[in-house]
From TrEMBL:
InterPro entries: Bact_OuterMem_StrucFunc, OmpA-like, OmpA-like_sf. Keywords: Membrane. This is OmpA family protein. It comes from Sphingomonas parva. Residues 34-153 form the OmpA-like domain. The keyword Membrane applies. One of its GO terms (cellular component) is membrane. Signal peptide: none annotated.
Amino acid sequence: MSPVATADPARRSRRGATRTFSLAIAIASLGWSFPGAACQSLPSIYFGLDSLAVDAAGQAQLSEFAAEAQSQLDVLEAVELVGHSERLGTAEARARIGLARAEAVRDLLLALGMPERLLRTRSAADTAPQVETDDNVREPRNRRVDLRLTYTPEALAAQRAERDAAIAAGRPVPLC
């Protein structure tokens, strides 16, 4: 299955363009990948019930992401970590655990050498589930952290120019 990038066209920053990506979704496609990487897929980071712990597999996945991101610091403006929760408990509790999960991922990325100035955390609580459920239904895929990457305008312009030149020359352009 080819990875698919999703973007939120309503979100823009004055200094750069913001595109939203889940850790479960590729950070690739038509100029929205890490510049220089045709297609890169990132794994999901999921959490246990009422848990803030990132297991060994999740830590390894974050380690790979951090290594790639650190090689591209000149084009990254921000990495927003958005924590999610299930529809269990009160709205306040869901918001708290979503933020705590985002902070847990931030702490791991800091330990892996990511610059603190790039990392921003927030909670989406249960407002953006991967799987729709009724209240008080457990769904492990909704216990996760998503990334929102903001690239510098210069990096985006350079990647678009590279893509446009490839199209003009008749060279294939990856549609990750």
